[in-house]
Amino acid sequence: MLNAIKGALLGLAIGDALGVPVEFRDRSAIQKNPVTDMRGYGTYNVPAGTWSDDSSLTFCLAEALAKEFDINIVGENFINWLRHNYWTAHGVVFDVGITTRAAINRIAAGTSPELAGGLHEDENGNGSLMRILPLVFYIQDKSIKERYQLTKLISSITHAHIRSVMSCFYYLEFARLLLNKTDKFSIYKQLKTDVPEYLHSLSINSKEISRFDRLLKSDIYELSEEDIYSSGYVLHTLQASIWCLLTTDSYKDAVLKAVNLGEDTDTTGAVTGGLAGLLYGYENIPAAWLELLARRTDIEALAERVAANYTIKKSN
């Protein structure tokens, strides 16, 4: 379990850090000078190995899971990050989504965390998907009903629209099956049945479910790169991450493919990197990249705390 948690947290942070220097560059520009290794500076003028808000908020959630889980602690951690630079790479917040900032400010003003997230259709950025992965270690042994409810709860801290919730749900269901060492293509096939069956049982608007048809009714890995989008829209990020995972055979290739799609490179890299870290394991993340990663030892210590708490809960 420790290896899995390290793979997820470090895999996500590495993907994030690879994407930070080229964030917002379009695909054609990146193709002229593709990312092949860890770079520094670029978009935010930060050193190589610097991760962004994607990793920061992931670690804020993981810290809450290393204790007795409480959504209010998650909310407090998010406030502490935004206002006091908690769990930042170098002591400064430099990249915050509009919807995420607004939600955290609402929590700081007294709104309950589960009620703080944006509910409008135009608030479906990837801000909850990018940070949701640690939740898989808490929900993996629970029923699908509990898994969905907890996923919705944690997504809704910042992103409460059903599309964001369903994206997080699909992503964590994929991650959960990776934890069980299921083949990635078998997972993809299984989720074509499991996910829509459960979502329809909740009487979710069928038009919303149909937005996931690329994942649920076709074989996304057969699409060409030109058909994959990499904006900050939650569905684009989810689809791109699954496509990158299914069309590569190593951690390194998956995250580089994700980052070189352009646009929201840090988040596409992070979301892909988290799954790839679970699939290929901590030991298959390039050592040279890990050596450059900001606060690597702190991240590893966090993984140990999460694993220790998981072990305690299992023994009880």
UniProtKB/TrEMBL annotation:
The keyword Coiled coil does not apply. This is ADP-ribosylglycohydrolase family protein. Pfam families: ADP_ribosyl_GH. Keywords: Hydrolase. Belongs to the ADP-ribosylglycohydrolase family.
